[in-house]
């Protein structure tokens, strides 16, 4: 079994704003494109244009309708990928050491050449963040685009995960969550960022920013505008006709 590092001073991860995400899936598409052409084996698709298409994705977006205790129902778009947990059960359960957590930045990766496709890490992950590639028979997961963030050949603005660079709503943020003075750490503190399923005890590095309270909508009759007269007193021919009829 693989052992975890005692501690990592640097904790690279994502902060996802559930209030800002519009569910456009741009992050899903950019992630699929980048990781199909770069790190590790390509992300395969099966029967992509047939009746039952399927494929491997490192990032997915789920949408839920939530009814708060007060106020109107809300549609919440919930992106999900590997959370790069401090106490990652997917690492400790791996029988070959293919799954590991880096000491230098806390990123959880898979050495695909050592992966035997047993699927134990997928069973151990409480978030369902790992997927078996049906063609390559190896486990795939979010790498935080490790081949981008350290690539000196890219402009500095592009040295972030592909999903972060692509998000049109600015709902995804990347940085060192081990540094309390980093932009992402300050954002988590200001907005009350939370862990996903903290009861699992995995101590995920990635954080979620909860939706802000929505303005209450006033109660009104949707038919009211159609029931009110256009004008109080008719004019023109209709006005003359109305007065004429009154005299009959």
Q: What is the N-to-C order of secondary-structure elements (H for helix, E for strand)?
A: EHEEEEHEEHEEHHEHEHH
The CATH topology assignment is Alpha-Beta Plaits
Beta fraction of the residues?
15-25%
Using the 3D structure, state the CATH architecture: 2-Layer Sandwich
Count of β-strands: 11
Structural class: alpha+beta
Q: Regarding CATH, which class?
A: Alpha Beta
Number of helices: 8
Estimate the global geometry from the Cα principal axes.
elongated
Percent helix: 10-25%
Poorly predicted regions? none
Q: How does the major sheet shape up?
A: 3 strands, mixed
Trace the largest sheet across and list its strands. 10-1-11
- Rg is 26 Å
**What's the structural domain tally?**
1
Overall pLDDT: 90
Cα(first) to Cα(last) distance is 100 Å
What can you see in these coordinates?
This protein is α+β, with helices and mostly antiparallel strands and about 250 residues long. The protein has one domain: Alpha-Beta Plaits. Helices cover about 20% and strands about 15% of the residues. It has eight helices and eleven strands. The strands form five sheets. The protein has a three-stranded mixed β-sheet with strand order 10-1-11. The mean pLDDT is about 90.
């Amino acid at each position: 079994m693989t052992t975890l590092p005692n501690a990592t001073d640097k904790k690279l991860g994502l902060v996802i704003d559930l209030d800002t995400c519009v569910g456009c899936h741009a992050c899903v598409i950019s992630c699929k494109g980048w990781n199909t052409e770069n790190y590790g084996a390509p992300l395969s698709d099966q029967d992509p244009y047939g009746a039952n298409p399927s494929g491997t994705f490192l990032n997915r977006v789920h949408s839920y309708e939530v009814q708060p205790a007060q106020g109107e129902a809300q549609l919440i778009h919930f992106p999900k990928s590997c959370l790069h947990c401090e106490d990652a059960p997917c690492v400790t359960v791996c029988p070959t050491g293919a799954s590991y957590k880096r000491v230098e930045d806390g990123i959880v990766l898979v050495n695909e050449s050592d992966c035997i496709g047993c699927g134990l890490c997928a069973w151990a992950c409480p978030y369902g963040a790992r997927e078996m590639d049906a063609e390559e028979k190896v486990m795939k997961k979010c790498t935080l685009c490790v081949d981008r963030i350290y690539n000196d050949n890219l402009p500095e603005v592009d040295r972030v995960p592909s999903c972060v660079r692509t998000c049109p709503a600015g709902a995804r943020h990347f940085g060192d969550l081990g540094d309390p003075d980093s932009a992402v750490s300050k954002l988590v503190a200001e907005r009350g960022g939370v862990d996903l399923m903290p009861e699992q005890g995995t101590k995920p590095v990635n954080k979620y920013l909860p939706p802000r309270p929505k303005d209450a909508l006033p109660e009104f009759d949707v038919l009211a505008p159609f029931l009110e007269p256009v004008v109080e007193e008719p004019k023109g021919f209709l006005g003359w006709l109305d007065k004429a009829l009154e005299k009959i």
